[in-house]
């Protein structure tokens, strides 16, 4: 038999046990420790042998053998201590068991400390304790919730016998707890018994029935609507042993829901009708839409409806439109037709808005003939005066019943709703159910009142639109018919609108003008003109009026530019009025010229009168002396005679210019008169060897003073002959242009300087060394006396072209029209 070494056995056990073991002396020095401690102190046990336990464990570890063994060293009694520590950031628990080692005298000299990890055990214990506390709290909470819940919470067994009844159930059903415990569901109406057992069967099978809407009976017998949730109650084995029912009184909610559904339907109809009415601003169509909406089944559903509008001028209510049948037969026919055609309110609204407006039905005509003076005391007039709705439920019981409606329409009950816009009654909506005899309820009156608000604003808008449209049309007509050019321009010089005068002047359609820059259209420039009033108004925001010469469109204009501001006072552009004053300017210039010429003529006449007699005497004596004298004296007398003759010619021209002449008109052939003038000038033409070319065409008949016209033509041809070079060329043409007969004289002579062209018809203006400068002035005057005009084209060194326009006789104009036709 082998002998076991006890010390060796103890050493093996000491080293291989899983729990930590440490031996301390009475001074708490570490005498021995096994390797199981190394994972806790994170160092070899050989490094702690002989050291003070407090230095090792108080500094580097969370559990402490010293603290656990203090009482054992003092009393000699074994001690078990539980210590909580943190290891690798985790919470751990250790149980330290301390056992004393005594000497022969019984004194404790050493202690053995066993260190055991009890973390799992402690955590399990804590979790059980936490769960117990939670269950207790949850039970108390659920009991409180059940007892104090506003809902009725009732628990029964599987046979429907009540085992639990909370305060919510008492409030909802009226039964106290003592009256129902142990009894079958007392709040179940007889009609619900069978469904109740069907539900019970489902619960037995483990189903949960949620939010069932059903009927329950209160203690006082009244029925209420509840929302019911039924759940099975199971024991620990999972068996269904009872039923939990939670019910909530939703009677008020259902009433509210029904009211909300009704109001939503009303609002939907109102929204649709209002949207449809916004689709037109034509008053008749709008009124037809309103009355159709009132009488359609999917609208407001009344039998008949009439719109009365207030006539403030005549102080009465005037029927303007009515919709509905006149008698029961017609009502049946209309409603059957609508049903057969499956027409909806939307369909009829669309037809009214887009189709031909159906008017003048018998009922419509009947309603349009109704006039109710506002001085009367009736329901309709009271609606206007008091701004309140009236529901006449029976005409025989209502002192304010409108007898005219009873007489003409046969109504027995009706409602009158005022149409109020901006706190002013503009009319009354009248409805009745004369054929269905359906009473008009308070909720109908509320709906009609809400509907009338939409109607009032729509009618007022349509009226305003009609007024604005009429005013716009009037302004448009005025704007278009103004003879002056009128146009609107933004502050960015963009044309926004123009009238017909602008279109006519520019020669382009309005769409090609609007949107363009004003200076491009009216001035043909790429930037505004400095003198433009519009540009000045843009800079100063003030109106300006300027007289402007228009080289691009021609003529002289008086331009007025005034600023335009929007409703916020911001400058947005200008309105411009352009008056063509070319004719007025010409008349003004002609008046000034006439006044000047009158004064000049008066002076010339006086001078001519004073020198005429002496000049005649001088001429006569000079011619006598010329016959009697010889030699140089004869030559001198001849010079005097010739000069006197020249002065007499000048005097004759002056007198011809200043004296008033009375035209002696006769019908003259244009070809013959031009030939007579040429024959007078023939000798001078031949003398300069001028090539005179004739292009007389078909002669015209003109009604003129022949001698005065010959004088005018003679002056022009004489000027051309005098301006021609030797062997030059003159072309004389006659032709017709519109309503004028034209005499054209063209030469290739000296021509007229551009700066002199505007003065050639002024009296006494001449560029020749000889002459009075009255020839062309006299010609111009003669042509104007015949309601004609002269055009001149000339260039220095390249010759001149004169065109004399003389109006044709009416007979010649008609012949010309026939030829062109």
Question: How would you portray this structure in words?
Answer:
- The chain is α+β, with helices and mostly antiparallel strands.
- It has six domains: 6-117, Beta-Lactamase (2-Layer Sandwich), CATH 3.30.450; 149-249, Beta-Lactamase; 261-468, GAF domain (Beta-Lactamase), CATH 3.30.450; 482-580, PAS domain (Beta-Lactamase, 2-Layer Sandwich), CATH 3.30.450.20; 591-657, no CATH class; 661-820, Heat Shock Protein 90 (2-Layer Sandwich), CATH 3.30.565.10.
- Helix content is 45%, strand content 25%.
- The protein is built from 26 helices and 28 strands.
- The strands form six sheets. The protein has a six-stranded antiparallel beta sheet, sandwiched between helices. Strands 2-1-5-4-3 form a five-stranded antiparallel beta sheet, with helices on both faces.
- Helix 9 (251-277) runs parallel beside helix 16 (442-481), helix 10 packs antiparallel against helix 12 (345-354) and helix 10 packs antiparallel against helix 16 (442-481).
- The longest helix has 47 residues, at 582-628.
- The radius of gyration is 63 Å and the shape is elongated.
- The protein starts with 5 loop residues before the first helix and ends with a helix.
């Amino acid at each position: 038999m082998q002998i076991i070494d006890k010390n060796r056995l103890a050493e093996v056990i000491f080293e291989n046990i899983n729990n930590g073991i440490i031996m301390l002396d009475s001074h708490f020095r570490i005498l021995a420790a096994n390797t199981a401690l190394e994972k806790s102190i994170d160092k070899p046990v050989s490094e702690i042998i002989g050291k003070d336990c407090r230095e090792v464990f108080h500094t580097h570890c969370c559990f402490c053998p010293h603290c656990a063994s203090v009482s054992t060293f003092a009393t000699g009694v074994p001690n078990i201590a539980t210590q909580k520590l943190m290891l690798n950031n985790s919470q751990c628990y250790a149980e330290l068991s301390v056992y004393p080692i005594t000497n022969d005298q019984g004194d404790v000299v050493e202690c053995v400390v066993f260190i055991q990890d009890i973390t799992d055990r402690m955590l399990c214990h804590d979790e059980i304790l936490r769960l117990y506390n939670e269950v207790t709290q949850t039970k108390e909470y659920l009991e409180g919730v059940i007892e104090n819940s506003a809902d009725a919470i009732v628990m029964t067994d599987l046979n429907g016998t009540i085992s639990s009844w909370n305060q919510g159930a008492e409030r909802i059903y009226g039964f106290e707890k003592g009256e129902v415990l142990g009894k079958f569901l007392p709040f179940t109406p007889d009609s619900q018994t069978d469904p109740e057992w069907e539900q019970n069967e489902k619960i037995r099978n483990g189903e949960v029935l949620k939010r069932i809407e059903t009927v329950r009976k209160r203690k006082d017998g009244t029925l209420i609507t509840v929302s019911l949730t039924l759940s099975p109650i199971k024991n620990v084995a999972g068996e269904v042993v009872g039923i939990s029912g939670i019910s909530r009184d939703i009677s008020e909610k259902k009433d509210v829901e029904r009211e909300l559904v009704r109001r939503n339907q009303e609002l939907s109809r109102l929204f649709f009708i209002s949207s449809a009415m916004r689709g037109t601003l034509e008053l008749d169509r709008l009124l037809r839409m309103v009355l159709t909406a009132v009488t359609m089944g999917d609208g407001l559903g009344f039998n008949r409806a009439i719109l009365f509008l207030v006539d403030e001028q005549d102080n009465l209510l005037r029927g303007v439109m009515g919709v509905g049948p006149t008698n029961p037969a017609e009502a049946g026919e209309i409603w059957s037709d609508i049903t057969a055609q499956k027409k909806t309110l939307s369909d009829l609204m669309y037809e009214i808005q887009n189709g031909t407006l159906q008017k003048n039905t018998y009922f419509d005509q009947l309603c349009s003939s109704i006039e109710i003076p506002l001085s009367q005391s009736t329901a309709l007039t009271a609606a206007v005066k008091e701004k309140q709705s009236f529901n006449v439920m029976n005409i025989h019981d209502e002192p304010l019943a409108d007898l005219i409606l009873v007489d003409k329409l046969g109504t027995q009950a009706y409602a009158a709703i005022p149409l109020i816009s901006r706190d002013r009654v503009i009319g009354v909506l009248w409805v009745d159910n004369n054929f269905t005899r359906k009473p008009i309820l308070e909720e109908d009156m509320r709906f009609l009142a809400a509907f009338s608000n939409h109607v009032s604003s729509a009618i007022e808008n349509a009226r305003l639109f009609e007024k604005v449209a009429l005013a716009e049309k009037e302004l448009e007509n005025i704007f278009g018919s103004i003879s002056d050019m009128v146009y609107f321009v933004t502050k960015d010089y963009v044309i926004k609108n123009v009238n017909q005068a602008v279109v006519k002047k520019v020669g382009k359609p309005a769409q090609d003008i609007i949107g363009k820059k004003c200076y491009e259209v009216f001035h043909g420039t790429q930037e505004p003109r400095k003198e433009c009033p519009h540009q000045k108004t843009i800079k100063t925001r003030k109106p300006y009026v300027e007289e402007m010469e228009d080289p691009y469109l021609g003529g002289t204009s008086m331009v007025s530019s005034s600023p335009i501001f929007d409703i916020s006072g911001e400058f947005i552009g200008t309105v411009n009025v352009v008056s063509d004053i070319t004719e007025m300017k010409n008349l003004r210039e002609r008046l000034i010229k006439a006044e000047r010429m009158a004064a000049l003529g008066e002076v010339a006449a006086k001078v001519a009168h004073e020198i005429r007699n002496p000049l005649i005497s001088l001429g006569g004596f000079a011619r006598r002396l010329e016959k009697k004298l010889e030699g140089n004296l004869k030559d001198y007398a001849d010079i005097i005679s010739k000069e006197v003759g020249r002065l007499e010619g000048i005097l004759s021209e002056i007198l011809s210019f200043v004296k008033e002449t009375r035209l002696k008109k006769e019908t003259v052939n244009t070809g013959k008169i031009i030939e007579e003038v040429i024959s007078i000038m023939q000798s001078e033409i031949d003398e300069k060897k001028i090539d005179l070319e004739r292009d007389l065409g078909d002669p015209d008949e003109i009604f003129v003073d022949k001698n005065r016209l010959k004088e005018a033509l003679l002056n022009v041809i004489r000027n051309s002959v005098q301006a021609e070079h030797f062997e030059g060329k003159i072309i004389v043409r006659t032709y017709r242009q519109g309503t004028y007969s034209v005499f054209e004289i063209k030469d290739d002579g000296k021509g007229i300087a551009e700066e002199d062209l505007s003065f050639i018809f002024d009296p006494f203006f001449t560029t020749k060394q000889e002459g009075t400068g009255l020839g062309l002035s006299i010609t111009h005057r003669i042509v104007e006396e015949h309601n004609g005009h002269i055009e001149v084209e000339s260039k220095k060194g390249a010759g001149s072209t004169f065109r004399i326009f003389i109006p044709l006789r009416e007979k010649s104009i008609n012949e010309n029209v026939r030829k062109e036709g």
